[in-house]
């Protein structure tokens, strides 16, 4: 059972989480709670680091950021003991989450949940500090922003359990319920669709946690910390027909880097993206235009937070390969996602039409078999999401009821 930042934001909320963990424990099943840092703690620590250093060392960043989750885990364990149950809090390292050495964005390489199992066998509720592990070089690592979801899914996989993600909305909605009042809670989303939704901005589940769940067949239930309502199940369900459109997602967290004068010869794209990968930067959309006069343009999106990290890499690359570059940091992206799209032509055209009718210019387009994404002006993103949600109401099947409760 994983509880996000807003679910553990203050002492009362931590006591509420403790009660929920105890109630689950009382049904007779062993319970592991994974907790995020309280409220906006991680953001606060990131800006604090920025105040003392222009380039905080990634190793020290991990030492710093891992503390937020430890606070929540310890407080939650205390609250459970107060309710007359036995609990123990563990750091990611103590919980046996072993990672590579890529500080601030480490990958899990092994899970050795021996201590968790022992504590469960003693009848304890185990609290694990989310979003962290220990590297193969014995340093504290963190797994990337929002990665307490990943801790939870990975531990559920290793312990052969189900994974419940408790958050501040009642599940996965057809669009961010904070932007679209008419958004509907989905009772089920296939792992592939959830992958596309998370990958294009539905931050309710962190992308890598969805990848992990899909690769390891871990069923995930996203639901509210503050109600008992059934949420959204992420799992295969062959009995259901694919929805034409399951959701409309958006992101305003990306920057778009364009490289110009890219030589049209084998190996150029490889050199560029090898350099980007070596800096541990996650590139999402990549678009290369058709070559007109010997040179091409390549545009790709990166998390805005990684723009400073990217600058060095790009400058070296441009010098070595004779490229030029510019950044568009005033854009955002809206996407339509649906596995049924494959068999319904015309969805993309209607998307462009809807945006055009509302005076929204499309700067870039990217598609996958089950997704259409448009890069547009950042300030137009909320309107675009609302207009698309209205325009595709039939495909989203809003008649099935269950409007948003935030
Ligand atoms: P937590 O702190 O519990 O991890 P997050 O803030 O990471 O929570 O994710 C929950 C938030 O995700 C919601 O408050 C909601 O605003 C946002 N969100 C974006 N897209 C969606 C969507 N399609 N369905 C549900 N929530 C969404
Ligand atoms: N506290 C971390 C973050 O804010 C991890 C998480 O909440 O999942 O990114
Ligand atoms: Mg989250």
Give an account of the 3D structure.
The protein is α/β, with parallel strands linked by helices and about 400 residues long. The chain contains twelve helices and 20 strands. The strands form four sheets. The protein has an eight-stranded mixed beta sheet, sandwiched between helices. Strands 5-4-7-8 form a four-stranded mixed beta sheet. Strand 7 and strand 8 (about 140) form a beta hairpin. Helix 2 packs antiparallel against helix 3. The protein is globular, with a radius of gyration of 22 Å. The two termini are about 20 Å apart. The relative contact order is 0.11. Adenosine-5'-diphosphate (ADP) binds near residues 178, 202, 203 and 204. Aspartic acid binds near residues 37, 68, 131 and 147.
Topology of helices and strands:
Layout: E1 2-3, H1 11-26, E2 32-35, H2 41-52, H3 58-82, E3 87-90, E4 97-99, E5 108-111, H4 114-121, E6 125-129, E7 132-135, E8 140-142, H5 148-158, E9 163-167, E10 188-189, H6 191-199, H7 207-216, E11 220-224, E12 232-234, E13 247-251, E14 254-263, H8 268-278, E15 286-288, E16 295-303, H9 307-321, E17 324-328, E18 331-337, H10 347-357, E19 364-368, E20 371-377, H11 381-391, H12 393-396
Parallel strand pairs: 1-2, 1-9, 2-6, 3-6, 4-7, 9-11, 10-12
Antiparallel strand pairs: 4-5, 7-8, 11-12, 13-18, 14-16, 14-17, 15-16, 18-20, 19-20
